[in-house]
Design goal:
The chain has 340 residues and is α/β, with parallel strands linked by helices. The protein has helices spanning 6-9, 13-16, 113-126, 143-151, 167-170, 193-201, 250-256, 258-265, 281-287, 293-333; strands at 27-32, 36-41, 44-49, 62-66, 69-73, 79-83, 91-96, 100-106, 129-135, 158-161, 182-186, 225-228, 234-237. It binds guanosine-5'-triphosphate and magnesium ion.
Length: 340
């Protein structure tokens, strides 16, 4: 790889302000493994270790290190996180210091407005711009209809339909991955994230054919990685997500559903449930036809989910603490805490 400068790596005044005089050269994390991470600096790639465990680090993070040991993580410009899948209630970091979240879906059965909207909340909450990338435009007669339906979700949203296997069409994504930019790709398995990655970087990372029956792919990419694009910026490819579970996303919800939140502020009662209360501005807007009842339903659902997931984490922590206290108490009663 040719020599990289700090601006090449995405370093900006946001991070420079946090650096101490005489601090060792900061590095950017490109891959995270169970016990070690890979980092990139102007001098090239290095393996680093951490005392805290790698769970609190994200691909795209800027870190300071002494020798091979990470000593600090710079405050992030943006952070994408979700609640882990399955019974696990932990928060999982997806990527850090991302400028644009590329929400990848295809012009086929994968296209789902509710899922895209969920990713919009993720982007707004993380503090990055959303870009909807609709692949497999070559497999439909009317890619524009997919673009229009996606863009109707938010006035600030850009959607692009491309054939990701066509190098010329891939170039339309260059404005989002120029020098200093970091574009992270998320979406279901098989939608073409790695195909876009290969088109933008000139690499040939593994992609896989999808099953014909349900338009869903097998998981081909198994870990996240920060890679340089030919346009000069960075790209983070991620493994396909079966379900995105939001966590602590109240701010993102407020941004994506700002119209409903603004209406709710005009309700007569501050704790209005927008059901049958008198003086409800939300139900009035639905009656007047200015608010889509489906949008209200989606907002309710996401908000309920976010509250449930965010609470679960707090509760899990409280439970852990409670359990710790109980164990300590029992040990004290048995005299085990005095080394007996
Ligand atoms: N015709 C066509 N095929 C595409 C397009 N984008 C991706 N594909 C194909 O779809 C399949 C899956 O693409 P991948 O890039 O592996 O999908 P992915 O999103 O990285 O999947 P995971 O790594 O499992 O999350 C491959 O066979 C690609 O060649 C497109 O725009 N048009
Ligand atoms: Mg992939």
């Amino acid at each position: 790889m040719t020599e990289l400068t700090y601006p090449d790596l995405g370093w900006s005044s946001h991070f420079a302000r946090q650096a101490d005089a005489g601090e060792a050269h900061p590095l950017r994390l490109t891959e995270i493994h169970r016990t070690r991470v890979t980092a990139l600096g102007p001098d090239g790639e290095r393996n680093l270790e951490t005392r805290q465990g790698t769970g609190t680090l994200a691909v795209g993070d800027w870190v300071g290190a002494e020798g091979d040991l990470i000593t600090r993580v710079f405050d992030r410009q943006s952070l994408l996180k979700r609640r882990a899948a399955g019974e696990d209630s932990r928060e999982q970091l997806i990527a850090a210091n991302v400028t644009t979240l590329g929400i990848v879906s295809s012009c086929n059965a994968d296209f789902n407005l509710r899922r895209i909207e969920r990713y919009l909340v993720l982007a707004a909450d993380a503090g990055c711009l959303p870009l909807v990338i609709l692949t497999k435009a070559d497999q439909t007669d009317d890619p524009d209809s997919f673009v229009h339906r996606a863009e109707r979700l938010s006035p600030l949203l850009t959607a692009i339909a491309i054939d990701a296997t066509d190098p010329l069409e891939i170039k339309r994504l260059h404005p989002w991955c120029r020098e200093g930019d970091t574009l992270a790709l998320v979406g279901s398995s098989g939608v073409g994230k790695t195909t876009i990655r290969n088109g933008l970087t000139g690499e040939s990372a593994a992609t896989q054919g999808i099953r014909e029956d349900d338009a869903r792919g097998r998981h081909t990419t198994t870990s996240r990685a920060l890679v340089r694009t030919e346009a000069g910026g960075w790209l983070i490819d991620t493994p396909g997500m079966r379900a995105l579970r939001l966590t602590d996303a109240a701010e993102g919800l407020e941004t994506v559903f700002s119209d409903i939140e603004a209406l709710a502020a005009d309700c007569r009662f501050s704790d209005c449930g927008h059901e049958t209360e008198p003086g409800c501005a939300v139900t009035a807007a639905i009656a007047a036809g200015t608010l889509d009842p489906d949008r209200l339903r989606r907002w309710r659902k996401l908000r309920a989910e976010d509250r449930r997931n965010s609470e679960t984490i707090a509760e899990a922590r409280a439970r852990d603490k409670g359990f710790g206290k109980m164990v300590k108490g029992a040990m004290k009663r048995k005299g085990w805490d005095r080394g007996g």
